C-alpha cells in the first residue's frame, strides 16, 4: 500500500499495486517464454517477479475511486 496523489480524487490516497504480464513477443509456448525470461535475466534486467522488465505492466490503483494508473518504471525494480 502506498500513498500517492490521485488525479480523480484530487488528493493523496492509498494505492495498491497490480502487476500484469504483457503478451509476449516471443510466442505462446512455455519454451519460448522461458527463452524470453533467460534473455531478460542475462541482460541484467530480471525482476523479483521473474519476468523481464519489458514484459510486465505495473499499475497503481486508487483504493478510494479505483482509478488505475500505468506506472512501469518503479524504482524498486532498478
Ligand atoms: Zn482516486
Enumerate how many helices there are, as a single number: 1
Average pLDDT, all residues: 75
Q: Ends: how far apart?
A: 19 Å
Number of strands: 4
Uncertain ranges: none
Report helical residue fraction: 10-25%
What's the level 1 CATH class?
Alpha Beta
Bound molecules: zinc ion
Which strand order spans the largest sheet, edge to edge or round the barrel? 1-2-3-4
Structural summary, described in words:
With 78 residues, this protein is an alpha+beta fold. It is 17% helix and 33% strand. It has one domain (2-77): Nuclear Transport Factor 2, Chain: A (Roll), CATH 3.10.450. The protein has one helix spanning 30-42, and strands at residues 2-6, 11-21, 56-62, 68-70. It has a four-stranded antiparallel sheet with strand order 1-2-3-4, with no helix packed on it. 6% of the residues are buried. The mean pLDDT is 75. Zinc ion (ZN) is lined by residues 6, 8-9, 13, 62, 64-65, 67.
What's the layout of helices and strands?
Blueprint: E1 2-6, E2 11-21, H1 30-42, E3 56-62, E4 68-70
Antiparallel strand pairs: 1-2, 2-3, 3-4
Bound molecules: zinc ion.
Amino acid at each position: 500500500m502506498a500513498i500517492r496523489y490521485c488525479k480523480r480524487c484530487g488528493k493523496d490516497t492509498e494505492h495498491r499495486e497490480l502487476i500484469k504480464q504483457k503478451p509476449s513477443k516471443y510466442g505462446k509456448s512455455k519454451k519460448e517464454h522461458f527463452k524470453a525470461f533467460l534473455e531478460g535475466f542475462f541482460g541484467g534486467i530480471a525482476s523479483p517477479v521473474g519476468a523481464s522488465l519489458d514484459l510486465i505492466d505495473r499499475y497503481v490503483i486508487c483504493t478510494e475511486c479505483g482509478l488505475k494508473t500505468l506506472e512501469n518504471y518503479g524504482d524498486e525494480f532498478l
